[in-house]
Write a structure and sequence with these properties.
alpha+beta, 5-stranded mixed β-sheet, 4-stranded antiparallel β-sheet, 5 helices
Length: 247
């Protein structure tokens, strides 16, 4: 019997566990996963239903900016028809609340505040604050089998195909994609490159090849598009602040 071949076989078998465990020995600052990328401004249905003023709809809105209200308009779409309701200040009227609560699911609600600003200028011209927001679906899009199944898919189709030493310093790669109304992956693209072409290719391919998800759904059963970010690398990177996720 060839003892050299036996020794080589033994060393080969011993090396297999170390190779497998290496994929689970990422640096402490390494992470991967997916998060919903929210619209610039969105609120929950419960927040909308409990809102009594414009400030409850937009946390960035400040009454300190305003010296005098001229008019506050709320505009929404109901059964495909655009409707408006007006008020004299930023306290929501019963009509405005009803207009928002009966807006078509997945459509934008627009707020316009015409006012005289709070300042000491001699010529204090009227200004307008205008913003729009969406109401979040009651059920977010979900990978069939849940997050555990999604993590397993990402690990098998992306993470385990990239050597650990690739993830150095503050390397972070992000692929954004949309789950459409039918649960299909739509418009995947590299938002933040790893600066390694073949790594970006692996991430894009894994994203494009995902099976269908359960789409985001409103309480009445209406399905909606929802955007996601698939990231891996150092999540302490300041780039994570450039995507509107709620961690």
């Amino acid at each position: 019997m060839n003892y050299n071949r036996i020794i080589a076989l033994i060393f080969g078998l011993l090396s297999v566990p170390s190779l497998l465990s290496a994929q689970d020995s990422f640096p402490n600052n390494f992470n991967y996963g997916t998060h919903i990328v929210y619209p610039p401004l969105s609120i929950s249905r419960s927040t909308l239903n409990n809102a009594d003023s414009i400030g409850h709809l937009n946390r960035f809105y400040k009454t300190s900016w305003i010296k005098e209200f001229l008019q506050v308009e709320i505009q929404s779409t109901h059964h495909g028809i655009v409707q408006s309701a007006f008020a004299k200040n930023d306290k929501l009227t019963a009509q405005q609340k009803k207009l928002m609560q009966t807006a078509d699911y997945g459509t934008e609600i627009i707020i316009k505040v015409d006012y005289i600003p709070e300042n000491n200028l001699k010529h204090n011209d009227p200004k307008e604050i205008k913003f729009k927001f969406l109401v979040d679906p009651e059920s977010s899009a979900e990978f069939y089998g849940g997050n555990e199944a999604l993590q397993a898919y990402l690990k098998e189709n992306a993470i385990n195909r990239i050597p650990i030493e690739t993830f150095k310093d503050y390397l972070l790669a992000i692929v954004q994609f949309t789950i459409n109304e039918d649960g299909e992956v739509e418009n995947p693209y590299v938002f933040q490159s790893s600066n390694v072409d073949w790594v970006d290719d692996i991430l894009l391919k894994a994203t494009k090849s995902m099976p269908c998800w359960k789409p985001a759904t409103y309480a009445n059963g209406t399905t909606s598009k929802q955007k996601f970010a698939f990231y891996l690398g150092n999540t302490d990177s300041c780039t994570m602040n450039l995507i509107n996720i709620r961690r």
